């Protein structure tokens, strides 16, 4: 994925530039008691992109992922049809607050994974990474798409 270059670029930026980069549409920052983690992401913000998701992706870099953005908060349920790698699914409310994390979703499993009601964003990252980083419910996602009243506003 093209995301590896973004990770390298973020690592090389001075601190003030890295903060601004967290407001790049290709970056999701997770803020919590553990600190902050930045993920280079692809954005799925229409029906076709959300339906495709990470299907048929053979590998995902360590700090890469995909953010699903819905038009309005809604019940969210995912499955792993044609998804080849284990994923952590991080479900968040309209203000970016993480409400639920489903760890280690099993590749190719078609069992529905319910993330909750009133979900507007879902961040998918490598399976097991949320636990290793210390990401938990109550932490906050930061991304330009999050609004209208994000907990962690993203200044362009």
Structural key phrases:
alpha+beta; 4 helices; about 20% helix; seven-stranded mixed beta sheet; about 160 residues; about 40% strand
End-to-end Cα distance, whole Å, is: 24 Å
Structural class: alpha+beta
Q: How would you describe the shape?
A: globular
> How many helices?
4
Rg value: 14 Å
List the uncertain runs: 1-22
Main sheet? 7 strands, mixed
The helicity comes to: 10-25%
Q: How many DSSP E strands?
A: 7
As laid out across the biggest beta sheet, the strand order is: 5-4-6-3-2-1-7
Oligomer: single chain
How much of the polypeptide forms β-strand, as a percent range? 35-45%
Kindly report the average pLDDT value: 88
Order of helices and strands: HHEEHEEEEHE
Task: Write up this protein.
With 156 residues, this protein is α+β, with helices and mostly antiparallel strands. It is built from four helices and seven strands. Strands 5-4-6-3-2-1-7 form a seven-stranded mixed β-sheet. α3 (47-52) links the parallel β2 (35-44) and β3 (64-78). The chain starts with a helix and ends in a 14-residue tail after the last strand.
